[in-house]
Amino acid sequence: MKEFFIGLLLGIVLTLATVWYFAVGRSQPGIRQAQNKAAAKVQQTVETVDAKLTAWHLTTPEIKTELARTGKVMRRSALDWGERAAHVASDAAVTARIKAKLAADGSLSALSISVNTTDGRVTLAGAVTDHAHISKAMSLALETEGVRDVTSTLQVRK
Fold this sequence. Notes:
Blueprint: H1 2-23, H2 29-55, H3 60-70, E1 73-76, H4 81-84, H5 91-104, E2 113-118, E3 121-128, H6 131-142, E4 149-152, E5 155-156
Parallel strand pairs: 3-4, 3-5
Antiparallel strand pairs: 1-4, 2-3
Helix pairs in contact: 3-6
């Protein structure tokens, strides 16, 4: 019963805050400035991700071409393996971190993508709904500490 009232109170507060924002808040200069800063950060993040995808040759056309040609997609991590040797986590920990990243991403299904790690070499297998999701899954894996290279045999199924 206590949780119900706390939830109800929280809902009322959020509703009032939303009404205030749309009625008064968004016209205030400070709020407008914060919105502009947030929009600029989002744009910067999008550009950074796009630059990484291009640098790793993980754009949708490249993924489609490579899948059609070889049936899989493979990329090496940009960082030197020797640099990482002292910090390499166990394969199980690497797999767990990648699975956690996949689960946290709303557009990818951690249940549809299997992750196998052996000596820092990651293999992604399973099915996704779009070629762009292959890029995203590979990017998440490549950015994980302890990963030497990533091979994807992910297939696009609609």
